[in-house]
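Intended use. Records like the one below are meant for learning the mapping from a protein sequence to its folded structure. Do not use them to infer anything beyond what is encoded.
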Amino acid sequence: MDKIAIIGNGPAGISAAIYAVRAGAEAIVLGSGDSALLKAEKIENYYGFPEAISGKELFDRGIKQAKRVGVELIEEEVVGIGYTTGLEVIAEKGKYDAGAIVIATGSPRITPKIEGIEKYEGKGVSYCAVCDGFFFKGLEVAIVGNGKYALHEAMELTPVAKKVSILTDGLEPEAEIPEDIEIDKRKIRKLYGSNDVLNGVMFEDGENKDLSGLFIAVGTAGSADLAKKIGAATDGNKIIVNENMATNVPGLFAAGDCIGGLKQISSSVYEGALAGLNAVKYVKENGK
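Structure written out for the chain above:
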């Protein structure tokens, strides 16, 4: 399967897709249209633009260029990565098989400002249901979040946990939650525990909710979240790659801000190109 799936439609992702197509592969790009590039008012240091250009205009030009060479662009939120006969991208509306995947989301993990989260990280607080769900088998757990990512994590935990709740921390749910998953929209004041182990959460109204595990899934899945779900090595919010933009997971590549380094459009374009070319090389050599 000479198909490369790219997660992220910013400079790194679009560059990876363009180079993959020009190298003879089929490429799809999945993105939710929230690239950090869109927030840049003026860009004055990018090669070939003597006058300043807005981030939105540069973003739009990249999208048009990708479409012109035959890249398929899909506007969906990605919630996971997994295996079937090969690799697959799990998005809000479906699953997409690929011979290789390039993560180019550039978005860091979002940690809500709730007292006690850092204290109980790894001691009841987790950022990956797939990675840590087994440790809470038969126990009561909750997810902090209000969107599709939080729902996906809840569905991962439902088969193993005794009870699963979604805590929106004062926000309205942005996804349709099944009836068997409890929703609590109260604002969270803090986490509490004993002997450095999480015991539960306290809401702003003073009421406590006892829990064995709390999974953080605020906003959309960040690059490190996606990488961890399939066993890729990370360092904090950064995905660890080699000189070919390859992770330790065969067929999984990463490029752009999500791997750290110089956070510039020029470096993201280069890394995306390198990831796209090496992803194509991987699928051709491995008959994917």
